[in-house]
Amino acid sequence: MKSTIALTLFTASLFFVGCGQKTAPPASSVAAAVAQPAMTAWQQGDPGAAVTNFIGSDWSARPLFGSHSALSLTEDQFKSLSNAERQAKSDEMIPQIASLKQLVAAVAQAGRAAAANGDAALARKYFSSLHQCGTALNSPDCLRVVQLVGKALIKMADTELSQLGK
To answer: How many folded domains does the chain comprise?
Structure first.
């Protein structure tokens, strides 16, 4: 009987000690940014991996960009910043958008190369990925400048896809 009471008290004390601890969620439960693998590979000078990661991305998933990226802000979040913070975020965005545009150009070029080599299915995969990315970027949850990039991507992808049928 005494051992049962002791075991119950010991278990209860472990429970109460454990309840107050704050633990970080497991790494697998934290959503990775969709664009991150492709953007990282591009910035590290590995265009092949960047393009492969780009076309392998699930552009319907969220978040698109990591929370550390200025591109992850919504328009309302951006507007709520002080003038100095807005300027700092704008300065941060310029190279990120430039890098994204370069990556997109590489994906489009890979699609054109596939089409020129007679591989319409692969070309369609590249251009469809560009369209999906454009649709994701054109979301109301994105900054207007990001939405504009998205609209341009959609237009480019649609043009390239229409050329495949000719």
So the answer is: 1
Sign of CA pseudo-dihedral 90, 96, 102, 105:
negative
The answer to whether residue 23 sits within a structural domain is no
- Overall pTM > 0.85: no
Q: For residues 5 and 38, is the Cβ–Cβ distance under 8 A?
A: no
Domain residues for the domain of 84 are 45-60+72-166
From its phi and psi, is residue 92 left (phi > 0), alpha (psi between -120 and 50) or beta? alpha
Tens of pLDDT, residues 9-25? 333 333 333 333 333 34
Domain assignment present for 118: yes
Look-up: residue for tokens 């990315």? 133
